[in-house]
């Protein structure tokens, strides 16, 4: 069925390309670069569908027949990996609603194979009017919701932004999705999915001998980030039970891989190691995380979208529990082998123990038996291979690194580390 629909959409897209080249189309409330110049400038930066020209209505009506999905936060780390994977394996349109915060980088999607089927909608998930326009115009069959403030340390210094985007933003997105979904035909309503991408951090912290988190583990979030994601999970759940909106929730462990913003542990340590800077390990480095290569997370999300049961939640993990110190020493050894220092001094010597994160969760671990049993998903990448691939990616993408290290990035690093005491 999917193959048949893909080939139909392929044909439509190819014919459309002849009518109007869709390259680099960006919809924005603030930019007039909404439409390709060949079909005339828009009446306003973002006109209502009714106000569009006949030609533009035809283009969009045909596009909406083609299985569009709406992705939120698709310019971030996991969202961009997801869109790259999605558009490589299925030629169906993707609309990417992203506010382009410090963590959102449209360049992550520069290598998209089918730019004609991709559109960046620069906007906020909390902007109900804008989301309603997008839903009406694109008629998506699914929403995959990645957009969030995602960094625990930032949630400790500025929790308000996490409440705004992760809770209020998800609420607003749910509300617009519900209104849109209620206006669909019965068969479209049955097929529609709202997939909410969440985290294992909602379950709190495990002691070393405790069993891994399962889907029935009690929620016990400890950071403002985890609490805001827990609240958003509850809202999503309530929209299934109250309104019947076909929702799915995934709770995943720590991701790593290409395009991760270098404020998170693994990319930060790779870049610092490469540059011979100190490697700031919080506390004594014994906190444990479960690590999943980002492509495995994306394949799990595809499996849940395709075969998951509405109203259910699925835990996703990599079966790769490591202490932070194990992760950082592994990075040091890989970087030493790939780019030896002139002095030959091992990078492990750069490790510095710094003041711990307040409320630092001791251990996360995921029991992924449900998604494996019910949907046939399991991670394909080992941690050592995934980490080598990740180091290689950062070594090969110096331009990307330089561009994401803006003034705002440097200010964050100064704030989080320069003012942090060494232990
Ligand atoms: P990220 O910080 O790299 O990217 C977040 C994206 O959301 C950015 O592109 C940003 O511009 C966008 N965004 C932020 N606020 C927005 C708003 N109000 N409206 C529209 N767009 C907005 O995050 P990530 O690491 O890619 O995580 C994506 C999702 O996966 C998050 O929901 C996160 O909670 C979840 N998650 C992440 C991990 C992980 O290890 N990174 C693990 C499990 C779950
Ligand atoms: P992080 O990548 O921020 O992910 P999360 O807090 O969502 O798990 O951190 C992973 C682990 O690494 C966490 O236990 C905190 C620790 N950490 C450090 O020791 N030093 C650092 O500079 C950072 C950013 C994290």
Provide an overview of this structure.
The structure is a single chain. This protein is an alpha/beta fold and 423 residues long. It is built from 15 helices and 13 strands. The protein is globular, with a radius of gyration of 22 Å. Residues 1-47 have low confidence and may be disordered. The structure holds nicotinamide-adenine-dinucleotide and thymidine-5'-diphosphate. Nicotinamide-adenine-dinucleotide is lined by residues 72-73, 75-79, 97-101, 103-104, 124-126, 146-148, 150, 165, 169, 197, 199, 229, 252, 254-255, 261.
Outline the fold blueprint.
Blueprint: H1 2-19, E1 26-28, H2 54-64, E2 69-72, H3 77-89, E3 94-98, E4 118-122, H4 128-138, E5 142-145, H5 152-157, H6 159-182, H7 186-191, E6 193-199, H8 224-243, E7 247-252, E8 254-256, H9 265-274, E9 279-282, E10 288-293, H10 294-307, E11 313-316, E12 321-323, H11 324-338, E13 351-354, H12 369-375, H13 383-396, H14 398-404, H15 407-418
Parallel strand pairs: 1-4, 2-3, 2-5, 3-4, 5-6, 6-7, 7-11, 8-10, 9-13
Antiparallel strand pairs: 10-12
The protein binds nicotinamide-adenine-dinucleotide (NAD) and thymidine-5'-diphosphate (TYD).
Nicotinamide-adenine-dinucleotide is lined by residues 72-73, 75-79, 97-101, 103-104, 124-126, 146-148, 150, 165, 169, 197, 199, 229, 252, 254-255, 261.
């Amino acid at each position: 069925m999917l193959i048949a629909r893909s080939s139909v959409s392929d044909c439509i897209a190819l014919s459309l390309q002849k009518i109007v080249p869709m390259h680099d189309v960006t919809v924005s409330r603030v930019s007039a670069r909404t439409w390709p110049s060949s079909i005339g400038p828009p009446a306003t930066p973002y006109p209502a569908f009714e106000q569009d020209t006949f030609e533009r209505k035809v283009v969009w009506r045909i596009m909406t027949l083609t299985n569009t999905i709406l992705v939120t936060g698709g310019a971030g780390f996991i969202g961009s990996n997801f869109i790259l994977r999605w558009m490589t394996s299925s030629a169906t349109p993707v609309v990417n609603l992203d506010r382009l915060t410090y963590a959102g980088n449209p360049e992550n999607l520069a290598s998209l194979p089918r730019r004609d089927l991709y559109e960046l909608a620069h906007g906020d998930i909390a902007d109900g009017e804008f989301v309603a326009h997008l839903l009406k115009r694109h008629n998506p069959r699914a929403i995959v919701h990645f957009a969030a403030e995602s960094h625990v340390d930032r949630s400790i210094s500025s929790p308000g932004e996490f409440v705004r985007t992760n809770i209020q933003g998800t609420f607003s997105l749910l509300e617009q999705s519900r209104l849109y979904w209620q206006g669909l035909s019965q068969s479209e309503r049955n097929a529609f999915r709202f997939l909410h991408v969440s985290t294992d951090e909602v379950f709190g912290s495990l002691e070393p001998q405790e069993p891994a988190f399962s889907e029935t583990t009690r929620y016990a979030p400890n950071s403002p980030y985890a609490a805001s994601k827990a609240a958003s999970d509850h809202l999503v759940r309530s929209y299934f039970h109250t309104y019947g909106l076909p929702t799915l929730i995934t709770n995943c462990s720590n991701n790593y891989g290409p395009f991760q913003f270098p404020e998170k542990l693994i990319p930060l340590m790779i870049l610092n190691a490469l540059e011979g800077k100190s490697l700031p390990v919080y506390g004594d480095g014994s906190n444990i995380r479960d690590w999943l290569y980002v492509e495995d997370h994306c394949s799990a999300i595809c499996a849940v979208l395709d075969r998951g049961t509405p109203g259910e939640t699925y835990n996703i993990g990599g079966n790769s529990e490591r202490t932070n110190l194990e992760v950082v020493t592994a990075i040091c050894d890989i970087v030493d082998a790939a780019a030896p220092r002139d002095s030959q001094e091992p990078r492990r010597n750069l490790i510095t123990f710094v003041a711990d994160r307040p409320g630092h969760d001791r251990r996360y671990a995921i029991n992924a038996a449900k998604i494996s049993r019910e949907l046939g998903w399991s991670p394909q990448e080992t941690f050592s291979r995934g980490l080598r691939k990740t180091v290689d990616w950062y070594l090969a993408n110096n331009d990307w690194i330089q561009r994401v290290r803006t003034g705002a990035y440097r200010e964050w690093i100064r704030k989080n580390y320069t003012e942090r005491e060494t232990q």
